[in-house]
Specification:
The complex is a heterodimer of chains A (254) and B (849). Chain A is built from 8 helices and 10 strands. Chain A has 254 residues and is α/β, with parallel strands linked by helices. In chain A, the strands form 2 sheets. A 6-stranded mixed beta sheet of chain A has the order 6-7-8-3-9-10, sandwiched between helices. In chain A, strands 2-1-4-5 form a 4-stranded antiparallel beta sheet, covered by helices on one side. In chain A, helix 5 runs parallel beside helix 6. Chain A is globular. Chain B has 849 residues and is α+β, with helices and mostly antiparallel strands. Chain B has 4 domains: 194 residues, no CATH class; 206 residues, no CATH class; 212 residues, no CATH class; 162 residues, no CATH class. Classes of the chains: A alpha/beta (254), B alpha+beta (849). At the A-B interface, helix 2 and helix 3 of A face helix 14, helix 22 and helix 25 of B. The complex binds adenosine-5'-triphosphate and magnesium ion. Chain B: Belongs to the ABC-4 integral membrane protein family.
Chain lengths: 254, 849
Amino acid sequence: MSATSSTDTELAARAVNVHKVYGTGDAQVAALRGVDVDLRRGQFTAIMGPSGSGKSTLMHCLAGLDTVSEGDVYVADMKVNGMSDKELTALRRDRIGFIFQQFNLLPMLTAEENILLPLAIAGRKPSPEWLAKVIETVGLSDRLGHRPTELSGGQQQRVACARALVSQPEVIFADEPTGNLDSRAGAEVLKFLRDSVRTLGQTIVMVTHDPNAASYADRVVFFADGHVVSEITEPTADAVLDMMKKIDTLEKVA
Amino acid sequence: MFKATLKSVLSRKLRLLLSGLAVVLGVTFVSGAFVLQDTLGRSFDAQFAGAYDDIDLQVAAKARVSGSAGDAASAPVGLDAATVRRVADVPGVGKADGDIRVEGARALGKDGKVVPSTGGPRYGKGWTGETSLLALRKGHAPAKPDEVAINAGLAEKGHFSVGDSIGVLTGQPKRSFTVAGIFGYSGDRDSIGGEQTVAFTEPVARELMLGHNGQYSAISVDLASGAKSATVKAALKKELGSGFEVRTGEELSKASADRSREILDLVTQVLLGFAAVAVLVGVFLIINTFSIIIAQRMRELALLRALGASRRQMIGSVLLESLVIGLVAAVIGLGLGVGLGALGASLLAGTIKGLEVADLAVPANAVVVSLVVGVGVTMLAALFPALRAAKVAPIAVIRSAVAPDRKHRKQTWTGSVLLVLGAALLVMGLAGSGDAAMSAVLPGVLLTFIGVTLLTPLISRPAVWLLGGLFSRSLPGQLGRRNSARNPRRTAITASALMIGVALVTTLSTVAASAKDSVNNEISDKLKSQLVAMGDSGDSMSASIDPAALRQARGVDGVEAVAAASFDTAKVGKDTQSVSSWEDWGAARGMLSLRAEAGSIDELAPGSVLMNKATAKDRDLKVGDKVTVQLQRGEPRSYRLAGTFEDMALANSVVIPWADATEGFRNAQPSQAFFELAADASVASVQPGIEKALRDSPEVTVQSKDAIAQKFNDGFDMMLNLVQALLAVAMIIAVLGIVNTLALSVMERTKELGALRAIGLGRGQTIRMIMTESVVISLFGAVLGVVVGAGLGLAVAHSMRSQGVNTLSLPWSLMAVYLVGAAIVGALASLGPARRGARLNVLRAVTQE
Ligand SMILES: Nc1ncnc2c1ncn2[C@@H]1O[C@H](COP(=O)(O)OP(=O)(O)OP(=O)(O)O)[C@@H](O)[C@H]1O
Ligand SMILES: [Mg+2]
């Protein structure tokens, strides 16, 4: 089963028949075995699947953090595989945003400085309106001067989200962004992500294990054993849960 | 536990290797010094073995002035024939012969200059025939007053053969002789310990070497058959009393060897100085390494504690680790040190005529000291981090791995106390005089350093912040600046390692700059003589000018006045110190622009002395006081202090009336002469005339004022060069420290770096960020060092007023060079870690747990 769709200009990122093999010989692991995914602009996509099914690997390949063994990866209309380190750096700086499970904020910088870091690295000035909008959406206006250690996990993750948003990247990759948060803080972050898609037109791809989290997305892509096995649009938590069970039984049968 | 420790050592090879390197360097210098001393020491022993075989016992009168000047500088006290008879009458003495052998006969080569040293003393002796030790190789014994025999070493160095004419300088002006014979020593030696000997006929030797003060310089005793050396020695001592020394041939050999070893002491001291710096800086490096390792392993350690490991076990494990490193470093250092010692020994031996380098051996003390220094220092330095490791609470397993930097109130206290103590010792040492005071300076400096280091974390955050401002224009610079301010303690210790080296050099540079400026100011402002004749070596006592030639120079057209001076050491009160005398005090006073400070210095009447202000203060003397002066020859005399003058480097000392000096100084001839020219005479027109007059006094050269100033400057510059080599050693180690710290920081921040790279920080930017951190830390250390060093240097320079340092100057340009050098060093040190940071696998870095 594949998840292809209409014209290229609407696509923020795309994976075409991507294979990824780790290791050699006996220790060989095929993490991705021919994955085709299209990620449309302005869409909030969730990726789900059992542990070890290759979700993170796909994200890493899409973001140019890891190389593919076979197939092609595109961000906007640029082919990511085959780029030099310099090009990859520029790609990450200008076109891609990251949200990590561990927040990965810089401890010596304040929240605001962390948010502005991608722009500072690129040597760009933030447009004041955009910045105000982002900060308002994250809801951290009174916490901007604080250091990461002085913020709660949820707040830190929202700073990380703002950091990913501020440079208006083509696509934001979030690998289990709520994995380290309790349900309330997680809900705040997810709401924020959904809002940024709805109101700011951002494209976001999120890996999650939580059907509830997935229900915030516009579309859920299901992974198993290095393949895309199914997808749901306009998901509800129940629909996601059902699908997960189905995949589980399928796997057991297989 | 042992196995776990060993594993942990091996897993952090590189880092430990870096910190171990400092210890290796320290041990290398220490063991190198010992090996050098041992090897050359044995070479000298072998060289002098048998040098006095022909003598059973030797009797000599004790020198009148001894002490700091040592044997070489003291004039021999002559013995008369009556003493020889007294010695001969002592039971057990078979034969007693008077000998003349005194240091100070300088042979002139064919170019008219003194034959260069062959590494040993220059003796003048009275020929007493061949012995079992000494035999003629060519020609015959000196028989006429104008004949001499010389040793083969001197003949070779000066290219003399039998029949040549040879000029010799002694206590009297140049005399010419004919080389009648050339002699060598048993064992086919050309020279013993690089000595040069001119053997005159006895009456000539008596005149030239003893100046008719007695008949002999020593008495050689042959024992009667069956007499025991020790018994006769005791009997001689009893007969002659305390004014005499009685030594066996063996003791004499040993004394000669010991004297030759003195040049070794200097080399040894330099090496030990290097070792001290290496070790001192190394201590900081080791403390830092272990602190960081422990900070990194906080979780692991806490887990161990949670699993029930006791504090003792934790300390033991860290100490065991340091023991292993110390041991390995000591062994490597010892190996390198043996090489260094061997190299040094062969280089040094090359400068000494006829010295055969003894077989290389590793003396036991080198091994012991290497191990003690290597292991001791490493373990001591690891102790503090170990104690801290033991304090890790089991709860830290759950808490964040990197503990926040707490305020260390205890450390601040200790630092303050040590700093105050160090400063007090310094003040005490610098204000006082004598050896006791000087020995307070070293611990004072050490305590000051440690104190400053302990206090450094307090200022490191703001200081680094300020310095980092230099780089805050670009983003990598900003990030680097912040990173360097993140861990003030670590930054402080790393910077301290650099601080010590820079501080030491700045201290000495400041002292040198002050001394240089003092001399230069005096020469340009006060010295009225446009031409000066003085020896080439800085030693004011090592040259002599023929008084007759000087009279001739006074008659040269355009010479207005001449002030000639002679210098010596004497016992003034209880202390040995430099004394001077001027042939024409009035002229000297004018030419040196001396101004009275108390009493009158217009005249130097018989029975009175003058001195500079600082010397009077040191000796606690006031105008009108009596002071006893024992010159090299004659009986002690009591003088009245008639006046004191303002300090002036060229004149600072106790000034004795000329008449007394000609009798009492070792060398009655002047060693320096100052020429004042007539108003209408030019230096260029007068200089050749004076040079011509002084052509038979080749030990001095006639120089302009500027050349003299330049010569002083060159002397200081040479010292500075040596000091800068010291800095290089300290820098190398400090660089290791910076590399170490940075490498660890990069490792610690892998995740952060990964995140930065993931959001688009380029490789170049990453490198610049890490480089900035490094440069900021090094600059911090250098600034600290320059400030501390300048302070110390000014204090030391201030304390040297009595030595004529009356201008305090800071070596601005050198200080700037040290700062720039530190910045460069910092940049270089960051290359490795920065490369690693830039090459980081981004994916692995961000996904790491
Ligand atoms: N660096 C690597 N070297 C070898 N194998 C790897 C590596 N990274 C991932 N794998 C393997 O690839 C497969 C997919 O891993 P991936 O991390 O993409 O799974 P995931 O779907 O993200 O799982 P989870 O939900 O647990 O995060 C797994 O079998 C994993 O063991
Ligand atoms: Mg994953």
